[in-house]
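$ ./design --mode recover --in tokens.txt
reading tokens...
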């Protein structure tokens, strides 16, 4: 696992850890079942506080990207199906809300594109 943390005002270290592990898990660079370093070990390796890495791991676990198996540690989970299901549920809720607001397809897509752009900025 190769993580690079850049200490800058715009990018929180916990978010950098989360994003990089997520990307590596989705790309297959970290295969399903890969054992992640301990929170303490990764924090020490990256020069971060334990709580920073723990926060990233908690978020990844909540998103179904990793799973913690007690004393055995944290592992990359088979998250593809869970992520696809959650995305489909979010899309259904978004479309239902847009329809209740009286929005047509074009306005709904425009709102989605605007939100996507704002989130990626």
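writing sequence...
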């Amino acid at each position: 696992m190769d993580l690079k943390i850049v200490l800058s005002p715009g990018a929180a270290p916990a978010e950098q850890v989360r994003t990089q592990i997520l990307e590596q898990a989705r790309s297959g660079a970290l295969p399903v079942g890969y054992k992640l370093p301990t929170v303490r070990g990764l924090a020490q390796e990256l020069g971060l506080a334990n709580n920073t890495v723990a926060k990233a791991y908690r978020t990844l676990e909540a998103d179904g990207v990793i799973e913690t198996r007690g004393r055995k540690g944290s592992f990359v989970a088979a998250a593809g199906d869970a992520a696809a299901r959650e995305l489909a549920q979010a899309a259904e809720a978004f479309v239902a809300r847009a329809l209740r607001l009286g929005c047509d397809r074009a306005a709904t897509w425009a709102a989605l594109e605007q939100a996507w752009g704002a989130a990626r900025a």
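exit 0
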